[in-house]
Design brief:
By secondary structure, this protein is mainly alpha-helical. It contains ten helices and five strands.
């Protein structure tokens, strides 16, 4: 189960082209190789200014100020999105990760600043990410869990998909599955024991981001509802077949869960008042 983030308006994060690039006219094929080489030199220097030579033909102070601003902007978004990760591993470790991400990551593929944290999560989760034994094994999962809040908060409003039973999942719902209990990790934990964990993150009717920890069975049901347009009966029949249960039996077992999700506003019944949570 992976989180999906919708597009949203944001600031431009792509590097501005050099003045020479603006002067290159359309159709000037002879200048293309030189332009590509110049852009490659700039990109390489932006990523590793202390290692890659400064591009020729540039004013040192101006390009270094630009590099510093770009690095600081990317770093500030990561610091803002992952405060718990920073608290647990320390600012120096996070800064080192940001430096690696700036040099090796794919932060340049989106023009929106608010999508940089997702690129940072992808960088941490990549199979070829360099191993660092000084970092906890749950760091990438905790970062994803923290990013989900931003993904839900910034996701655009979309029309509800109402199923045959008149039910709809709440807007911007994200479902995350983890090998560690990311919702309980804190500074007081000397050691985090692996434990399969599923969490639903969503916006309620007041546009507040909420978290709901799920059992594996509840997570499968929610995943099925996401896939089938919130057809509750079809989801129960699908899971009953998978679990080799009678559909009516399973429907009875999950009926209280439906009421709880309605009370939590994870599940909606458009056009009616939501029930309140008990106790």
């Amino acid at each position: 189960m992976t989180a999906r983030q919708g597009p949203n308006k944001g600031q431009q994060a792509d590097t501005a082209p050099a003045p020479e690039a603006h002067q290159a006219g359309v159709g000037q094929a002879s200048s293309a190789p030189g332009l590509a080489r110049m852009q490659g030199d700039w990109s390489a220097y932006f990523r590793q200014p202390g290692i890659v030579p400064r591009p020729t033909g540039t004013e040192p102070r101006r390009i270094d100020v630009y590099v510093s601003l770009l690095r600081n902007n990317i770093g500030s978004f990561i610091h803002q999105c992952f405060p718990l990760c920073e608290t647990l591993i320390g600012t120096s470790h996070l800064e080192a990760l940001i430096d690696r991400f700036f040099a090796e990551g794919r932060w340049h593929t989106s023009p929106f600043f608010h999508e940089i944290p997702k690129a940072f999560v992808d960088f941490l989760q990549a199979e070829d990410a360099p191993a660092d034994e000084s970092l906890p094994p749950w760091l990438a999962e905790l970062a994803h869990y923290e990013w989900l809040e931003l993904a839900v908060e910034t996701a655009p409003d979309v029309p509800l998909r109402v199923g045959p039973q008149g039910l709809a999942l709440c807007p911007a719902l994200q479902l995350g599955g983890y090998a560690y209990p990311v919702h309980t990790i804190g500074a007081e934990d000397a050691e985090v024991v692996p434990a399969t964990t599923f969490v639903a993150v969503y916006r309620d009717r007041q546009h507040q981001v909420r978290f709901n920890v799920l059992t594996p069975a509840a997570a499968q049901l929610l995943d099925a509802l996401q896939d089938n347009g919130c057809d509750w009966q079809a989801a129960c029949e699908q899971l009953a077949s998978h679990w080799r249960l009678a559909a009516d039996e399973l429907a009875g077992q999950v009926a209280p869960l439906q009421q709880q999700w309605l009370a939590d506003e994870l599940l909606l019944r458009p056009g009616t008042a939501q029930p309140t949570a008990a106790g």
